[in-house]
Amino acid sequence: MTTTAFQELIEMFTQSQTQYEKVLTLKTLANAG
What we know:
Blueprint: H1 3-15, H2 19-32
């Protein structure tokens, strides 16, 4: 996983406005890790 991709995931997480989006982002991070 590249640093750029990781930074994009972090931005997605911080910008997500709903709990649902945050859950999806956490799942994505878990799968990417």
